[in-house]
Amino acid sequence: MSKTPPIATLPERGVYRRLLRDGPAVLGFALVALLVLVAAFAPLLAPFPEQGAGAASVADRNLAPSLTHWFGTDAMGRDILSRIVYGARPALLVSMAVVGLAVLVGVPLGLIAGFRGGRLDEAIMRVADMFLAFPPLLLAMVVVSLLGPSLWNAAIALVVSWWPWYARLVRGLALSLRERPFVEGARTLGLRDITIMRRHILPNCSSPILVQATTDIGTVLLAAGSLAFIGLGAQPPTPDWGLMVAEGRTYVFSHWWMSAFPGAAIFLAVLGFNLLGDALRDALDPREVGR
Amino acid sequence: MPTPLKRRGTAAALLAVALTAVTACGGGGGGAGAKPPPARVLNVATSANITTWDPVKSFSTEIFYMANVYEPLLWKNPPGSAEPFRPALAESWEASADKKTWTFKLRQNVTFHDGEKFNAAAAKASVEAAQERGGASFIWAPLKNVKAPDDHTLVFTLKYAAPMELIASSMYGAWMVSPKALAAAKGNDKHFESGTVDGGTGPYKVTEYQPGKQVVLRGFDGYWGQKGAYPTVVSHITPEAVTQQQMLQGGQVDLASGLPLENIGQLKADPNLDVGECATASNYVGFFNTARKPLDNPKVRQALSHALPYDDIIKIGGEGFGSKAYGAVPQSIFPGGTDVPTYTYDLAKAKALLDEAGVSGLKLKMTYAAENQAQKRFAPLIKDSFSKIGVDVEISPMLFNQQWELGKGDPAKAQDIFLLLYWPTYSDGGSDNLYSLFHSSEKPFFNLSYWKNKEFDGLLAKAGTFTATDPDKAKALYTGAQKILVDQAPGFFLYDVRNPLVSPKRIKGLTCNPDYAFNMFFNQLAPR
C-alpha cells in the first residue's frame, strides 16, 4: 500500500539520533567541521602563516615533503600545507556565498512562481529555463570571460548558474503546497499572499532546500576550483586549491606534491559536504523514520 | 623617425611567453644544388595559431608557418656571425654614402608557388602592399619610393637615412608575395583565408589547414634553394606546454616549440634530447602610470624600482631563463649595452625614497596578461616585495587585449602598473623599443607610462638619423637617452628573455637566432 508522505518540516525528534547512527554522516560532519575549524583558525594552524597568505621564499623552492614542510613547497618556495590551510577560507567562503546568494535569489522567485501561478509563473520559469539550458560551468565561463577572471567574479558567475535550480525546486514544492487545507485555511482567514508564503509555504520547503544547499556547497566548491584551474577563478597569489592544482600541473611528473595535496583537499571537502547532504536527506525524509 | 604600430595580440603574447622553444632560426633559404631528400614526415607540436594567412597583414604567431612559405629579400644572421646579413631573394645590395638610396640585385630564376616569376616588379608590388596595408607597415616608414629599373634591380629611395638591411630582413612585413596573389587579395579579403592558397617562394607550401588542429606543409618542387630533408611537415597545434612535452618525450612528435620552462630539468635528463639556451629579442618591462599621483613623482618611481626583486623574478618568472636587463633594449639587439645603469634590489633605499617623497599607505593596481605564464608567476613576487615597504598592490590579471585597451584609454582611469612582454619587429631597439615604449605621444599606444620628456625625445630623434650612417654614434646617443629613462624611471626593466633550445639528438640543424626567435626553418632540419 502506498501513501503520500506528509510534508517534511525542520529537524524533529529523532533526526539527530539517526544522523549519529549513520557512519557516513558522521564522517561527512567531521570533514565539514574540520574544514570550518581550519578556515577559522588558519593563522594559528598554518606552520608558515605568511607563506600561506602568499609570501614567497625563493630559497625553499620545490622542496619535497619533509618534517619541516609536511606537504612540500611550491615553485615560489611556499609551504603547501600552509597554503592549503589558508585555502580553506576562500573555498568555504565562496561556496557558501554562492549557495547563499543562489538561495536568496532562487527561493523567493520559486515561491512566487509556484504560489501565484499564471503568467508570472510562466515568465519566471521561462527565464530560469534559459539559464538552465546552458551547462552550469559553461555559463559561468562565459560570465567570467565578460567580467574578467577573479575569485569574486567567479562567485558571481556561479550564482548566475545556480539560482534557477532553487527556483525550480521551490516552485514545485509551492505548487503542491498551495492547495493544501492549511493554506486554504490561511487564505480564508484573510492572510495576505506574502504572509502565507513566508509563514506557511516557506517553512515546509526548508528541509529540501537545506538538503540541496548542503550538497550544492560541495558542488560549487568543485566548480569554483575548476574555474580557478582554467584561469577564470581565483588569481595568484590567492591560496585557492583549484589554482594550486593548476600551478602544480606542469610539475606533476617531477614534483607530484604540488598538485596532489591541494587535489586531496578538494576531494575531502567535496566528499564531506556530499556525505552530509545525503545524510540530511535521509534523516529529514519521514519515510526513513523508524529505520 | 618611424612610428611603430606593432600589435601585441593575445596569441602572439601566448606564443612569446610559451616560447620555451626549439628555435631553429639560423635563417631560411640558401645553398642551391642539394640532393633530393628521402620521403620523411616531420611532426611538430606548436602553440602557434593563425590569425591570418595573408602574408601582408600577418603580424602574429602564424609567422611560425609563414617563414617556411614566404621569403624576404635578406635574412639577418645571428649575433656573432661573420656577416650580419645573408642573401634570400636578393643576391647582393649596396647603399649610397648617405644611406638614403639602396640598390638590391634580385635572384633570378625564382618562381612563386602559383607559377608567377619573381622579378623586380613583383618585389616592388610586395613592398608597396606591405607599406599600404601591412600589419607591420610602419617598418617601411622611411621609404620615399621604390623603383624597378630592370627585371632584377630594385632601388629604394628613403626620406631619411635608415638601415634598409634590417627592414628588408624584418620578421614581419617584408615577405615577397606573388603579384597575382596580391591582386586577388586586394579585391577579395578572404583570398588567403583557406590557408592552402599562398603566394610565396619558400621551400614549403601549405597543403592542409585545420583551424586549431594542424597545418600540413609539403615541399615546393620548384624551390630555388636548399630543399628540406623532410618533404612533409605536420604541425600539431597544441596550446598546452605540458602536453607538448608529453608528445615529444612519448615520441608522438619529433619537435616541440613550446615546452614548459618548469620542466627543462626533466628534458635535460632525457638521453634523447640536447638542451641548450638562446638569447632572444624579448624582454619584460613594466610601466608606472606617470599621469597619476603619486607616481608622477620620480622619487616614488625610483623607490618602487628599488623594491623589485630582480633576481627572484628571473628565477621564478623565467625559471632561470632570463638575463639581467639593462634598460629597455635587450642585450641581443642594437643598441643594447651594459653601460646603461640599473637599479639594485634595496628595500631600505626604497623605503627612504618613499619617506623623502612623503608617501605612505600607497595602494596600487597592477595589471598583467592573464595568458602569460611568466607574468602570472612573478606578479605575486612584486606584490609581496612592495608590501615590505608598505605599498599595497592589487594584482589584476586581464586578457592581453583587454589590458591593452585599458592602458590605451584615459590614463586617469587606467592601471598604476602595467606589465608587458615586448619584442621588436626588427632588430632596432632604438627606433622600436625606445620609441614605441617611451617616446612622448598624445595618444598612448605602447607608451603606457604616459611619460613625456623632451630631452629623451630629442636624443631619440638625433640617434635615429645616425643608425644607418654611424651606428656607434647612434648607440652613444641612445645610451644617453636610456640613462635619462633609468633615472626618471617611468617604467622598470625586469629581464631579457632567454629560451631553452631543446633539440632531439636524432635531428640536426637547430640553431638560435634572436631575430627570428618565433620561427622554425624546416628546410634546415635533417635526420642525423
At a glance:
Chain A is mostly helical and 291 residues long. Chain A is built from twelve helices and no strands.
Account of the protein in words:
Chain A has helices at 15-21, 23-40, 42-45, 49-53, 80-116, 118-132, 136-147, 151-177, 181-188, 193-229, 241-249, 257-284. Chain A has 291 residues and is an all-alpha fold. In chain A, α2 (23-40) packs across α5 and α9 packs across α10 (193-229). Chain B has 15 helices and 19 strands. In chain B, the strands form 5 sheets. In chain B, strands 13-17-12-16-14-15 form a 6-stranded mixed β-sheet, sandwiched between helices. In chain B, strands 8-9-10-1-11 form a 5-stranded mixed β-sheet, with helices on both faces. In chain B, β6 and β7 form a beta hairpin. Chain B: One of its GO terms (biological process) is peptide transport.
Furnish the topology, listing elements before pairings.
The complex is a heterodimer of chains A (about 290) and B (about 525).
Chain A: H1 15-21, H2 23-40, H3 42-45, H4 49-53, H5 80-116, H6 118-132, H7 136-147, H8 151-177, H9 181-188, H10 193-229, H11 241-249, H12 257-284
Helix pairs in contact in A: 1-12, 2-5, 2-12, 5-6, 5-8, 5-10, 6-8, 7-8, 8-10, 9-10, 10-11, 10-12, 11-12
Chain B: H1 10-18, E1 41-46, H2 63-69, E2 74-76, E3 85-87, E4 90-95, E5 101-106, H3 120-133, E6 143-150, E7 153-158, H4 164-168, H5 179-187, E8 204-210, E9 214-219, E10 232-237, H6 241-249, E11 255-256, H7 264-269, E12 273-288, H8 298-306, H9 310-317, E13 322-324, H10 347-356, E14 363-369, H11 373-387, E15 392-398, H12 400-408, E16 417-422, H13 430-438, H14 454-464, H15 471-488, E17 491-504, E18 507-508, E19 526-527
Parallel strand pairs in B: 1-10, 1-11, 14-15, 14-16
Antiparallel strand pairs in B: 2-3, 4-5, 5-7, 6-7, 8-9, 9-10, 12-16, 12-17, 13-17, 18-19
Helix pairs in contact in B: 8-10, 9-11, 13-14, 14-15
